[in-house]
Amino acid sequence: MTEESRPNFVKNKPPHMKELYACLQCGYCRSVCPVYRETGWETLTPRGKVFLLKQLADKNSFLDKILGKKITDFLIGRKKIPVEEIMKAIYNCSLCSRCETICHVDINFHEYWEEIRTWLVENGITPPENTVNMYNDIADKEFKNPFKEALAKRNEWYRDEYDLPNKAETVYFIGCVASFHEYQVLLSTLKVLKTADLDFTTLGTDEMCCGAINAMTGQWGNFKEIAEYNVKQIVKRGAKRVVTGCPGCYRAFKKYRNFTKCDFELLHTSELIADLIDSKKLVFTKPFKEKNLPIVYHDPCELGRISEFEGRGIFDAPRHILKSIPGIDEILEFPNNRMESSCCGGGGGLKAGNYDLTMKIAIRKVDEAIELGAKTIVSTCPNCKGTIGTAIEMKKEEMKKQDKKLKMKVMDVIEIVAKSL
Ligand code: SF4
Ligand code: SF4
């Protein structure tokens, strides 16, 4: 690559160069990266990405001098403008932050990868096409969601049925995945909150995508606007508390605090449900179906590890709820759990950018559950549920071809709670 053909942004250094130079290139992070596990491609490891970024920033690195040419020529091929290769390295990542748990020099990867994506976008590098489409569909007033679903679909069938008030102490922020794809999570949550006699409402068609996908893919253009819009809708309902079952929305709402005033309390549904169980506002009467036992719990990255990096990880509340359900005497654990939980592959915009890779990562999760002898994988994230659910179906197909049968399903914690009332 000649100096002239190098993309403009290479002339500007990536953010936090100090952290990049702190990397020891020890490679410990390779062993835990789900993307590396499936691809075996060094450039996609955290170490590889860091090395690539350092080389892009250094005009005359030590290695360039020895080799007499830009080391990135070797790393990313001799294409004229290797933008696609840089994009591939940075966006082939589920933002799971598992690398942060093992990094010797404590690079804050849960913030870092998002900042690098932001830097790329600010320098005119377009993120994967599907994520750009999602950004545009969220901004489109006809949809306000990344799936291009009609806005009316958020509202048409449940608000009247559940007789939800216009004002309430708690707003249940549903999120786009539960609104449009994982209806059972939505229906179960409504049933549970009604049974607990909670003073709550939803935003109906006034709910807009939380903007998590925009933030994760470096597309911050309308994030402030989204934050202000959703907060305004919540304030209009007189709510003192927001509860959401989606870890992506949960994190986006935490980011809102940097953009607008948010006085309300923020909870994930698992925290609220655990409290409702302890205060005896939820009493279970029906046991979990024996044929679906044993269960194994999957910690969603954003709810557990990443929230822990941000101050408070939610690991115990979902397990506490499951232990309270009649018929569940044991919760199996994945070999990597809690802070070390292996990603399902569905986060960080990876599913939109590289669906096949996401499914490979998710199928590995299913394989681990089969190895444990689990019949039900339980999570508390609609996106994990959707991703793992598809992986289970793919695994079933694969096994069918070998004349084998797989009995396995995926459930959200809230579905189990609702079925046990
Ligand atoms: S965040 Fe996850 S997928 Fe991305 S580099 Fe780190 S370990 Fe790999
Ligand atoms: S674990 Fe940290 S220091 Fe070691 S190679 Fe990975 S990013 Fe660099």
* Ligand types: iron/sulfur cluster
Number of strands: 8
For the largest beta-sheet, the strand count, sense and barrel status come to:
4 strands, parallel
- The total of helices stands at 21
What is the 3D form?
globular
Nearest-integer average pLDDT: 92
Question: Percent of residues in helical segments?
Answer: 40-55%
Structural class: alpha/beta
Give the class-level CATH name of the largest domain. Alpha Beta
H and E order: HHHHHHHHHEHHEHHEHEHEHHEHHEHEH
* Number of separate domains: 3
Description:
The protein is an alpha/beta fold and 421 residues long. The chain has 3 domains: 8-122, Orthogonal Bundle (Fumarate Reductase Iron-sulfur Protein, Chain B, domain 2), CATH 1.10.1060; 129-278, 3-Layer(aba) Sandwich (Rossmann fold), CATH 3.40.50; 290-420, Rossmann fold (3-Layer(aba) Sandwich), CATH 3.40.50.1860. It is built from 21 helices and 8 strands. It has helices at residues 17-22, 34-39, 46-57, 62-67, 71-75, 83-91, 98-102, 109-122, 129-139, 176-180, 183-195, 212-216, 223-236, 247-256, 269-278, 305-309, 316-324, 350-353, 355-372, 382-401, 413-420, and strands at 170-173, 200-201, 241-244, 265-268, 295-297, 331-333, 376-379, 409-412. The strands form 2 sheets. Strands 2-1-3-4 form a 4-stranded parallel beta sheet. α20 (382-401) links the parallel β7 and β8 (409-412). α11 (183-195) crosses α21, α15 (269-278) crosses α17 (316-324) and α19 (355-372) crosses α20. The protein is globular, with a radius of gyration of 22 Å. The model is unreliable at 1-8 (pLDDT under 50). One iron/sulfur cluster binds at residues 32-35, 46, 93-99, 109, 113.
